[in-house]
Amino acid sequence: MSDQAKAYTKLVEHLKGLGLLRSCASVLGWDEQTNLPPKGAEHRANQLALLAGLSHDRATDPVIGELLDQLADPNSVGGDQTAAYANVRNAKRAYDRSVKLPKKLVEELSRTTTLSQHAWVEARQKKDFTLFHPWLEKIVTLKREEADALGSETGVKYDALIEDYEPGATAAQIQSVFAPLREALVELVSAIKESDKKPDISILERKYPVETQKAFSIEAATAIGFDFQAGRLDVAAHPFCSGFGPGDCRLTTRYDEHHFPGAFFGTLHEAGHGIYEQGLNDNDFGLATGEACSLGIHESQSRMWENLVGRSRAFWDHFYGKAQQAFPDAIGDVHIDDFYSAVNDVRPSWIRVEADEVTYNLHIMLRFQLEQALLCGDLNAADVPAVWNETFTEFFGMTPSDDSIGCLQDVHWSAGLIGYFPTYSLGNMYASQFFEKAQDDLGDLNAMFAKGEFMPLKEWLNNNIHIHGRRYDAPQLVEVVTGKPLTAEPLLKHLRGKFGAVYGL
Amino acid sequence: MSDQAKAYTKLVEHLKGLGLLRSCASVLGWDEQTNLPPKGAEHRANQLALLAGLSHDRATDPVIGELLDQLADPNSVGGDQTAAYANVRNAKRAYDRSVKLPKKLVEELSRTTTLSQHAWVEARQKKDFTLFHPWLEKIVTLKREEADALGSETGVKYDALIEDYEPGATAAQIQSVFAPLREALVELVSAIKESDKKPDISILERKYPVETQKAFSIEAATAIGFDFQAGRLDVAAHPFCSGFGPGDCRLTTRYDEHHFPGAFFGTLHEAGHGIYEQGLNDNDFGLATGEACSLGIHESQSRMWENLVGRSRAFWDHFYGKAQQAFPDAIGDVHIDDFYSAVNDVRPSWIRVEADEVTYNLHIMLRFQLEQALLCGDLNAADVPAVWNETFTEFFGMTPSDDSIGCLQDVHWSAGLIGYFPTYSLGNMYASQFFEKAQDDLGDLNAMFAKGEFMPLKEWLNNNIHIHGRRYDAPQLVEVVTGKPLTAEPLLKHLRGKFGAVYGL
């Protein structure tokens, strides 16, 4: 074996060990959200800080730096188009970032965000921002410190952080995509508002027994291809998906007996993430080629299954009979047309994760605006509720009555995830662009859905997207898959087409 | 600060870090038993092996050796009667053991026992020993290797292993306590067999809805003092208790709709362990003074709450009305006398964890005999079913119809826990001796139980046993608490008194 081959083998071993160690922290993180008894929060924070510190030690081990130096020339691993070089390139990016962060900051961030999430849960429950305020302040301070340590080419703090979620993206680029999208969306929302058609959403607020919701959600998630032999569905305050590694991916949701769409579409959404995780190459666990490409691409998978599939007419042509059998008291007498309209009702609403496909992106833009201001210092943590409500009113024409349906609704900031939100809207755009291409390749997807055939799309995603892992950066992946750079056109075309029909525009 | 004080502070820091790291593995171990999707077993085994290796690295860090050398003189920490010296002494014992074990063996044992437990679950379900046989063989080989690496003063392999569970005990000592106990028990069983009184145990096999069992078990566990704000109760194939650390202790049980005692007394048993864990000094987490004394002492707590409290007449004087309300269809028409007799029915039975108080110890003695033979090489893994059945027939006068109610019933060997079983019977003896002393100190405990007052006993245990952690070794603790060395007399007195009354002997 050549020295370079030996160096690559050693690097792979090191990265896999690091991935394995990090996946231990994922288990503790998931358990924290799903099972932790209240008095265990402090101990859990200590456990996670310890693991974060140990992972940081491994991630910054000078041995990695030396191995990466030996492999600096792409030809040492067969050229810059190889999977091996993708692993080297990504490892270098991660290593260069990690060594900039002091271990103390990494541990402090881990400890703080663990405890802060418990404070957030309580603040949200009690609708009391003051319980969360000191934590948010501390987190923003730490994230600013992190951004300064990392640095960015643009000199913008926010760009230093977004790199963790959407490598290569910048706030300015995102803004330049968001601005015209926002304009088009506002126009569409306004046209919908003028329409005479008003779906009756009260049918979704009838009684849907929780156990039946759970069984029905699991049935649908299984049908679209999530493998419950390699995963689970549990309850958490905020729905999420956590892939621990080969054979183990956990979904969470939350049930409201009087609100059907929350848990159902939430589960489809998380199952979409889960199908991506389950579609990664198990043998490459710990390497870039066995890892999701970016959060934006991750969201493209979840939003596709949730919306382009789950909220399609064809999906309900297949599933509505089953739904009526499962919930006879709620929708036994409801016509599929009315149900379909109700789950596609477009109107300003409080909660992002339950928002319709059109207004959803406005929720994202609001958060994107606020978190940039928080990070650059234009907005103080203390002023978040007031500024949230003011901006919300500007965007949606209505004002939250309390913070639990306003600035306290999302877990992200309490978890230190600043810079994460824009990936949701990027995901919506990626999703539509991928979906168009899948349709080109596979033929009439809706005709398949109407027959309950979801495997062709699932396998297309496996073979065209999941298989690559992080081999390409997101912008490059979009071109590899669709032959075009990212554009909002497919999303707008989809929204105009679908809601034009629903609202007779 | 003196050099010695500095060394002690450093030692404490090191030990706490090690405890914290080990507690991460506890979370993964618990999750493995309660939540793991089938396809995640391999990855989980890799995670646990990694953590076992990391813990081993820390446990054998030469720095600990140096610190312990600096603190070798008890006077360096205030004398041999101090809590600090107890921590040093226990740390030295643990360090001396750890450095004898090769890291590779530690990782291999972790990986093997993780995977093996899944094989055991399947083998037990399918009543097919051949599925478990290769794993048992591998485990026995590894445990023999471990015993050889550790060595023991007696030169007996089994004694090297028992040190992990009951420090200072040997197989010969245990045998010398077990022999007369067995004789007395066989005599008592035989007298009971002659009795005309035959409790009607069919009333315990009526329909007890699982959800109600769960609620009722939680009510009882709460009443005896388990804090569910600092713990949970979940379902697992084999009931256990795992204390992760301050504020987080997990109990598991398993429900059978047609067998009331299993989950109920099982939960009281695990809650007894949990109350011990919750009673440890949180500030000393990671140190001997914040750790349970031994498994025998741990079992004394669980068996006390399960049997001396939970199967007492006084307990049911308080709880029976509630039980009748919870399960009206099953026992609405059953007199308390009949119920009390049924839950104290003594007869040969297949399953250890559900055995009555009298025959239980015979189940232990059988396992003690077999695992000694396995370890010294007198018994091959392949012959375990045949020898189990033969010995069982000798002990109980009946032969298991399949291995799921025979040699496959317990998780222990699949988890590598060889040398653990005798601690259950030691626990029974400790329990009766402690209980007698508590009664001396507190007055009529049964009168308290009958009024639903369990806190006096719980607090007595907190203040007399839990508070010491591992400050004393078990034999010493018994003397400190009761003023006498361990003897089987209190257990035999309890059994003869109680079952003499139940069976009119």
From TrEMBL, chains A, B:
Gene3D superfamilies: 1.10.1370.30. Coiled coil: none annotated. It is an enzyme of class 3 (hydrolase). One of its GO terms (molecular function) is metal ion binding. Transmembrane segments: none annotated. The keyword Kinase does not apply. GO terms for biological process: proteolysis. It holds the Pfam family Peptidase_M32. Broad specificity carboxypetidase that releases amino acids sequentially from the C-terminus, including neutral, aromatic, polar and basic residues. This is Metal-dependent carboxypeptidase. The lineage of its organism: Bacteria, Pseudomonadati, Planctomycetota, Planctomycetia, Planctomycetales.
